[in-house]
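Hi team, as promised in this morning's meeting, here are the two structures we talked about. I've kept the exact order from the run log so nobody has to guess. The first one is mostly here for context; it's the second one we should focus on when we meet again. Sequence first, then the predicted structure tokens.
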Amino acid sequence: MKLIKSFKMALNMVLHSKLRSWLTILGIVIGVASVIAILSIGDGMEAEVSSQFDSSGADIITLTPGYTKATDFGPGRHDEPQTSSADADADELTRRDYLAVKSVSDVEAVNTLVSDKVDVYYQGEEGTLSVTGVDESVYAQFETNDLLEGRYLSSADYNVVVIGETLANEFFDRELGINQLLTIEGKSFRVVGILDGGRSSIYMPLDAAYTIFDDKEKDVYDSMQIKIRDEDRLNETEAKLNLKLMNSRHVSDDDLDFTLTTNAASADLRAEMLSTITTFLTAIAGVSLVVGAVGVANTMFTSVLEKTKEIGIMKAIGARNSDILAIFIFNSALIGLVGGIIGAIIGIGLSLLLGLAGMPALVSYSNVFMILGLSVFIGMISGVIPAVGASKLSPVDALRAD
């Protein structure tokens, strides 16, 4: 019997058992759609992390006081304090650290930062917001958000601020625009720039920030952002900075009291975390594919029982075992194919809807075709045992079957 004839007979079996076939296909559809949607969300989240890494700067190293050690896995960065000085001042970042960092030849610029939450007033309204004091002379080199209006801070600035888009347009009842005044801890600051971003943060010159923070000491910093000259030499520069700071702070590897963090390391940890979560969720969704495979096998066993007498007739008129085997394998493969196609369409549609709803979802058509092929393969595998059983039926026994 030619394969095309076996295929037509398999197609007729599917078409003449519509309800049972569609119920079986439904299991494959749910499994395929779930796997594609979850993979799309995982790919979208990884792409978003990668995008954030690109925008945050691959050439930036962050220096913070106190030593923390990043684990290689976990929800984001696991910072485990390894040492805690009895003297809190010993961990502070000071002007001496700034000068040590600046002396490294691979360093292009250093942005010193202090931050805290303070009370902010605007036209009779009050709110508590995060304010960050930055080195205004280099701030523009480190800011990753574009300007919506106005300008960045510059060297001659003092009582001025740059604010986020959310603060400008949504935080207060009235919009806050360029050249309007904010009262922060009793002092007036003029808005000179609005960032194109959804943040409510406020950035001001470092010296001005010291005047509104009660617990900040001049020339003591909460952190430093270090911009290096060549991002391809990130690891070498980090090693140089580490050695320089160890010498400057008179500490060794055993009693480090500072932490250098690269954006690349943070991005890698986040990407690894997202990949693990995606794999876990995909495995859960894959369970529904396994259930669908069991459904296909069950349907095929039922088909063999129903077609026993017809199998006997076909064998009596010359059909070979391979012909019977091909019919049932085609039958199960068709169920997998139809279920895979419908599931892929639903999975892609679901991913697009999630994207429109604001959830990061990126459809990878290589994943779609891989899952589609997998559904056909699962359908064929599920039908192998019933098909082999059908092909080995004795014509006499099959004809005697009720």
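And here is the second protein, the one for discussion:
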Amino acid sequence: MGTPPPPDTTTGTGTKTSGVRPGARAARRLIPLAVSAAGLVVGLGLWQWAGVRDPVLFATPGRSLSALATLTEDGSLPSALLSSGRLLVVGLALAIVAGVGAGLLLSRARLLRGSTDWLLFALQSVPIVALAPLILSAFGFGLPAKTLVVFLTAVFPILVNTAEGAHRVPTTLLEVARTFRSSEWRIWKDVLLPHTVPYAMTGVRQGIAMAFVGTLAAEFFLNASGVGGLLLAASTRFDSATVLGLTLLVSVLAVALMGCGRAVEGYFARWREVRP
């Protein structure tokens, strides 16, 4: 008896298939969603239980959503979201431009990178609250001071990830580019930037989360306004329903923005995607 032929793994066009059945592929996508949904249900259940057990300290999800509806009806929540959103967008945009630019520069200037690594990590570890008095003295209580706080909280993850991505460009690719006498511009365009973008987008996603923290910190400590101002006022009144409702809203917005960042990262990093 001869050896049975191997299974056909090619399509009619001769292209190899992944060998994964459609049902298995769908299950692989649905299982994480099911686990996430189960975790969300369990979390809401615990929240409801805590709210019923101690209604003064923990408002139930229903009371928290009702508090958000009240803030929406009187117009305070939409205006606060607009104010906080403008601050976050401006600060994050400046952090992306500065972080990506400085990261690429550090990756190409070895002496500068080697002499400033320790400084970057030292600055990244400084609590932004410690800088608040200095920022107040230098820029006052307006938008520039708040923007600086958001910028400082978001720029370092973007900078470090961008520099690391550019530093990890395979030496072989650079040597091949130089062998074909590629100009510095073509090395940046064809090798350096495509390899660095996924790392930079990872830093941007981290920067988004940090920008949310910086926005609330700026609105807490520099001038009570926006969503941070609403949170501060509700905390002063010990209004747990409004505090928990606003916290939930901020978390949902952060997850949505980071999801957008992940989609952009996936688009630019299709070449890096590895299927199990």
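Starting points for discussion:
The first helix runs from residue 22 to 53.
DSSP finds ten helices and no strands in the chain.
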